[in-house]
Predict the 3D structure of the following.
Amino acid sequence: MGIKVIITGATGMVGEGVLLECLQNPAVQEVLMVNRRPFALKHQKLKELIAQDFLKLDSLDDRLSGYDACFFCAGISSIGLNEAEYTRITYDTTLRFAEKMASLNKKMVFDFVSGAMTDSSETGKVMWARVKGKTENALIRLPFKNVYNFRPGFMKASPGQQNVKSYYGLIAWMYPMMKLFMPNHVLTLQEVGRAMVNSVTEGFDKQVLEVKDIRELATLLNDF
């Protein structure tokens, strides 16, 4: 039997890329995507739960129980937001969701999509990096089987993705050159998704994963 996974953020680029990898990965038995709005994708492995407010989940305990992993890919840019607003969305919402997962699934692995140059000290000058660092640190303290904070750089979309920002097409052509000259700054979303699956089935010796660590984890072989 494969693993059962919850994914948030499937209506965004990163979450959708991770979702597509999970659906084709033989190590994954079932995927529940928890979305704020419906996503018109059908697959025999896939279920959907609409939760418009991640801070209000108490009525959904039975739907969120019995899972091996949560891949938290929901997120938002800090552009145009002050620190209080960004903290409410990035820290408060993520921690509330994670706390609910930890209470319902004692042996769960929780993977959080953070960002390159996140500030683990929580004291730097860059607002979003401080908030992401605070979120990473708080997640590690929760009683999960394990927590992995993913810090990907530029990510290449997977074939067939629907949820890709308009600006992505303007820079995607640079990926081959970036991979050649800056290999520790770029990944494919297939690699990110595969690394997340492997974090559950194989484990890893770091809880904060930079690009090179994500790529290494993605290459591990499992028994499925």
